[in-house]
């Protein structure tokens, strides 16, 4: 059915607050087939368990075949679901939103909270007829989400549409194997819907570079809608295809949100442009480490201690290793500034702050100032330019996410670089680029604890 080969998808990046996203959606569908809104986009997030309760609704399993717009009282008082359903139905558009679910429990359940209910961070999807077609309870809660409970079991939520198969999960879930990798690898979805409230943590965990890298490495469409709140360093939404970034918005200067619209291939796996799988360690394991008389030095990135080596020459080859990971870099700089310092770093270990997950990272980055102790600190601009580069690592995982961040926290256009099947992130245009960060960010899932967050709350 050729008509469905390309479809329009829309994202809303907005400031959170009561009904704000609902008003936005009612005014701005712009002919899209599906619209995704941010995590916490309707309520905001400054809540305790008690203060969020009045906003929660009973969200049933989609198997009940329910259109809240035409039958709003079937599951009690559900004004938000009714409004979302009517927005979808009246505009003939799929609507994706993040709200809160409540489920009663009692003493027969040993994990039942003292107030007699579970509260879940929940994504809902309504189809173009207003029918509830998907409900997802966020499995990997981030540390500050004290208002919600951890689901007992993970769930892989997918649904079919005339324009492809979709999966859905929320924010911190993207670091996990379940559900993030599972919905792509095992359920073979074409596109992932991804509401987030992501605060950018430079240099390696800024929303747009990380999310676009995930889409590229997982070879799937990703529709990432981030909350826009600059006081919390939250911005950065985008529509990402396996082969290219379609559109993104990053703005730390203003408080205005943005509606993004893009056309995507609805079934990318069947396209001739679908990227080949990458063997991320093939090249790095085939070459000998580059020897250097320079000493390594430690540096911190988001509470993880990397092993660094300084790039002292305008052109060179370097290797830096930590535990089982060795990172190889070949590069050529132009317009090298004497007051700007770059370093190559490696990390192979368990990250333990605000969640626990095992990482292998190779990164070339600009240090904040010429003091090597600032390597790994956030940096906003660069004047030195890289004309050629090739970065690779001896990764023990096939889940590696390649990032290139330019001065001003902008993405490098795809025409300037490539990811080779042997695992090299390599320049290809010879155009000098003001690089802040090159990174191969690897996740080693088989070394993870059972759950990324602090685990389910247990009440005595």
From TrEMBL:
| Name of a matching Pfam family | Vanin_C
| Tagged with keyword Methyltransferase | no
**Origin, by domain of life?**
Eukaryota
Q: Which UniProt keywords apply?
A: Glycoprotein, Hydrolase, Signal
Q: Which InterPro entries match?
A: Biotinidase-like_euk, Biotinidase/VNN, C-N_Hydrolase, C-N_Hydrolase_sf, Vanin_C
Boundaries of every CN hydrolase domain copy: 1-280
Protein family: Belongs to the carbon-nitrogen hydrolase superfamily. BTD/VNN family.
- Mind telling me what this protein is named? CN hydrolase domain-containing protein
Q: Which organism is it from?
A: Felis catus (Cat)
